[in-house]
Amino acid sequence: MTQLLIFGSTILGLNPIDVGDAFDLGDLLVAKDSVPGYSIISVELPPDYAPGKYEWANGLVPVPPSYTPEQLAEIHSRLGKALQGHIDAQAKALDYVSQDRLASYFGSQHARHGPEARAYVAWRDDVFNAAFAIERAVLAGERLPPSELELIAELPVYVQPEGLPPLPEAL
């Protein structure tokens, strides 16, 4: 077990030594009156513990990473391309030229194209909602950005409507 000197959510140091009106942290002397409401907590440190990597919030929690605007733009662009590619690939897997062509059948009365388009558009909305939730969690520091493959794996799966007539063999 390791003792932590905590002030708010900040971990000030490990294994503080009480020297009367201060704590000796080895390379730093912290006056007790400079940290009113401090806590000393005994915990098991994770193997990857490093100063500044964790904070205290009723337990050790990783400090959310901070990103520069350029890094955020790169993450958004990279994952946006993967998302768009996934949406387009699903339309092509359903034998449509593009997602726009498939979605254009939304109001169609055709026995196959209408229901297929409505299911696809509903799925696409669910995919975007899931992607936006992932993006919000990344921006809030609740999680790390996923890789392209991790993003796709977290998205809803398209379900083809039942009872559709088969595609013609050839035109």
Any overview of this molecule?
- With 171 residues, this protein is α+β, with helices and mostly antiparallel strands.
- Helix content is 37%, strand content 18%.
- The chain has 4 helices and 8 strands; from the N terminus they run ββββββββαααα.
- The protein has a 3-stranded antiparallel beta sheet, with no helix packed on it. Strands 3-4-5 form a 3-stranded antiparallel beta sheet, with no helix packed on it. The chain has a two-stranded antiparallel sheet with strand order 7-8.
- The longest helix has 27 residues, at 113-139.
- The mean pLDDT is 90.
User: In percent, how helical is the residue content?
Assistant: 25-40%
How are helices and strands ordered from N to C?
EEEEEEEEHHHH
Tell me about the largest β-sheet.
3 strands, antiparallel
| Tally of individual helices | 4
Q: What is the total tally of β strands? A: 8
Global outline: rod-shaped
How big is the Rg? 26 Å
Structural class: alpha+beta
* Cross-sheet strand order for the largest sheet: 2-1-6
- Low confidence ranges: none
How large is the share of residues in beta strands?
Answer: 15-25%
Mean pLDDT: 90
Distance between the termini: 73 Å
Short description:
The protein is α+β, with helices and mostly antiparallel strands.
